[in-house]
Structure prediction request, 255 residues.
Amino acid sequence: MSLYPRAIVPIDHIEPCPRRIRALLNGEWVLDTSSARYVWEWQHYPHYYIPLADVREDLLVDEHDVQQFSGGAARQYGLQVGDSYRPGSVRVHTEKSVEGLANMVRFEWDALDTWFEEDEEVYVHPRDPYTRIDALRSTRRVRVEIAGQVLAESQSPVLVFETGVPTRYYLNRAEVDLGRLIPTETATVCPYKGRTSNYWSVRVGDTTHQDVAWAYDFPSQLIQPIAGMVAFFDEKTDIFVNGEKMPRPNTRWAE
Prediction:
C-alpha cells in the first residue's frame, strides 16, 4: 500500500527548468538532470518532473499499476535503495500524457532524503522561479514589543521582502534583549531561506508567548545579510517602524 496520496491534481502550466537537479536516497544518487521541467500542480509553487533517461531505473520497483492523473496516464513505481523502500513514491508518465510530460518522472518530495539545485540543498519543495526574496539593509528605526515590554530596538535592520509573506525585520543580536528570550526546540526549514538555527519564546508576567522569534545562522546564498540576526513574528508582536505601529498581519502564523 502506498504511503503517499495519489490525488489527481490539475496541471496549471509546464516550463523548462534550466538548473541541475539531483536527489539522494540512502546515500545513492537517484536522479541527476539538467533537463527537468517545472510543473505547477497548484498555484503556489511547482514540482520537478525528471526525464526518465536521467533516473536510476534500476532503483525503480514496478508496481504494475497504471493510473490516470490530470497530466495523463502514469505507471506507478516504488523506490528501493539498499534497505530503504518507498512504495508508491514514483510515477512515470506514458505517451498518453499531456504534451511535455511523456516519459517524465515525478517523485514524491519526501521519498528522497535530500534534493539539490546545482550544489545547494533545497528544502520542503522546489523554489518557485516567480517568487522573489530580497534582504535589504535599512536605516529605518524598528522597535519590537510584547504587552508593552520592549524586546528589541534597531536603526540598522535588514528587511526581508518575500513574495506572499509579510515584511520581516531582522535585527542584530546586540540590539535584542536576549535576557527575555527563552530558547525552544523548534526548528523549521524554508525553500528560500534554509534551516533555522534558533527559535525563542518570550515570557511576560504569567504569559509565555511561544516561538515568537527566530534566526538563521547559515541562511541560503539568497539572503546572506540576515545571517545571525533575529526576527520576530509581526503576527505575534507589536512592531513599530519609524515610530508607527504596524498592523498585525493575518496569516497562518498568527495563532
The first strand starts at residue 14 and ends at 16. The two ends are 36 Å apart (CA to CA).
